[in-house]
Amino acid sequence: MIVETGHYALVLALALALVNSVVPIWGGATQDRRLMAVAPSVALAGFGLVAYAFFALTYAHVVSDFSLANVVENSHSAKPLIYKITGVWGNHEGSMLLWVLVLSVFAAAVALFSGSMPEDLRANVLAVQSWIAAAFLLFILLTSNPFARLAEPPPEGNDLNPLLQDPGLAIHPPLLYLGYVGLSITYSFAAAALISGRIDAVFARFVRPWTLIAWICLTLGIAMGSYWAYYTLGWGGFWFWDPVENASLMPWLAATALLHCTAVMEKRDALKIWTIFSAILAFSLSLLGTFLVRSGVLTSVHAFASDPTRGIFILAILVIFIGGSLALFAVRAGGLKQGGLFAPVSREGALVLNNLLLTTCCATVFIGTLYPLALEALTGEKISVGPPFFNLTFAPLFVPLFVLMPIGQNLAWKRGDLFGAAQRLAAAIGAGVIAMLALAAWRGGPVVSVILSGLAVYVIIGSFADLGRRLFAGGASVAAAAQRALGLPRQALGAAFAHAGLGVTLLGLAATGWGAEKVIALKPGDVVEIGPYQLAFESVFSRNGPNYSEIVGRTIIRSNGVVKASIEPATRFYPTRRMSRAEAGIATLGLGQVYVSIADAAANGSVNARIFWKPLVALIWIGALIMAFGGGLSLSDRSFRIGVARRAHKAAAIAQPAE
Amino acid sequence: MLRRVALLLALLLAPLAAMAVEPDEILNDAKLEARARTLSAELRCMVCQNESIDESHADLARDLRLLVRERLQAGDSDEQIRAFLVQRYGDFILLKPPFKLATWLLWGAPFLVLVAGASAIIFAVRRHRGSIASPDGLSESERAKLESLLGKDGFS
Q1: How would residue A655 be classed by pLDDT, with cut points 50, 70 and 90?
Q2: A338 CB near a chain B CB, below 8 Å?
Q3: How far is it, in rounded angstroms, from Cα A463 to Cα A461?
Q4: Based on the number of CB atoms within 10 Å of its own CB, is A369 exposed (0-12), middle (13-18) or buried (19 or more)?
Q5: How far apart are CA A46 and CA A11, in angstroms?
Q6: Considering CB atoms only, which of B5, B22, B106 is closest to A396?
Q7: Is ipTM strictly over 0.85?
């Protein structure tokens, strides 16, 4: 019964989305405030209905209702409860439902938290958001119904793909979807602004926090996915340039570019056309990602759905939304008046360069991902575009970004002083060079690791150069500087942290060059040296989990005879799906990790193992956390809040004694 | 310079993709083994989805890894081994697509996009400047008139 009501709630949600697609726009066009006022309440009701449908599906999974095709195909009564819940979105139908749920969450958030927004802008934003919701609800109801019943329910389900039975599934897809789908709001804002023809700094001011939220979630989601792949796929890699990874990287690059150009538009009323275009582009890439993953057009490690009718449906959505918005853009863009002037060497100029490089990176990933498909479709010729291509093309575009990042931060708006910026960065440049020399003397090793480490140090320190100068201006004491720090705009602080986070990630990437690796057959009692550690392979034994059996190789890690950690790398076998997967044993020691992955035991009792020492590898993901933290700081900036005046007054009172 | 950085970075990133190589496959000659690993990381496992033969557990990948090592021991160069595999399996086996008629657009794309973007920016800036500067400045005919009134030197 609950299942049927869930299905019905989805149909009702579609009806409401259709209402909200038309009424608010009509109200905006005729300046009828009653019609415009419909939008927020319908958006909230739509959210309630989709949330209920999601709850109904979750309920069916939790109680293992095997009369539902979706539950049979993706669940098992012995599956642990957490995977019964996360399994809801570990399949095509459920993940589309999550997609629409996130879409309606954002619509509801706009309805609730945008009281200060111009009424017609809000009405139009919610209407555009409803178009997207209607399209995807229709997609679910017509091609991917998660509530389909079976005439003859089997007694047991087929279990969930073992690779997905991991806590990562609880965090990665929801975060990624919050990011992907969060960009729908920026799209809706852009479309609404184009419809109403009012594109100004007010637009940038309202779109920026939403872009930031999406960007933070996307950053965390990608990092989480990368760590998940790192510890489950068992070969120690963390980024594979897999098309599905690329599908999430492209919106991230576009959102990063968008964040930077909305800053220009908000502060200087410039780059309007480009900002609107970027907003459309970012969500278009999200849609493209959804198409690539959901249509099964690329069959890759992640793809767990393939059905051509679905592909064509999403392709139609893609064409309508991207084509429609670009047509609207073409009509309106010509009438846009350019805003503030700026010299090539200025903060604006640096941000334009940032956007050029990020967009080129994004285009490179786009072409590299789609080229083999297009070539095969057009000529029948099959080629592979793999990691070597992306490393060769992406890296030369990204290295200049690292070099330019701190410089841009140290340029003034309108007209900057390149020499002055270099002077301010003297400490950062010096630290980078010293780090390079020290590493070269101490570790030697791959030249590129040394260079990139130096670059990373320069970026990390350089990110804070401008803030440091402001804090310690006039030879202020540490206490005074700390007090001043409280009065600093959080946006500047957030930018510094986000940039530094990227530097931290780069340092982690650079350090992989100093790693060590061994491929070896291990018998209990063996001792292996790896990096600065000794690994004692103690025993091999098997044990049973709830819905799998596993072979475990207990390993003790020592450093100069002192026990540092004990790990249990395992290989798990899931009988229902007849699939096995590695569960790497990872010990984090300092910022580095010892990583052991084992294969099935051989007849003589030995196991094939892959052992890695990965110095500083944790920095790769810590850097992403710092980036997200920076995004959060920026989001908490008082200019985004209501009650600005009161808080600003308080902050000024604190800042005064420091002057 | 950029090319070298890129190449170095590629070399750096190569060991990131770790191995499904099994202990019994490893060659005694460390130099040959290192070449085998580098080669395998750039060869696609044809039956897998986006995995190199170095990463894959598939039987075909193992066969290819052994084949690569066999050829290396026979004294073939990296280029000869790649050519041999391409002849057998086509360009599909190369994770790094060769530069040829069908792929020049792929390899050239980053550069073309960068140049197109930069030109668009320069064009936009020029036009923007022009539209704002001209009302204040003098047109060619105005300048000529001014010069004729003031004389060639401007003051005499």
Answers
A1: very low
A2: yes
A3: 5
A4: buried
A5: 10
A6: B5
A7: no
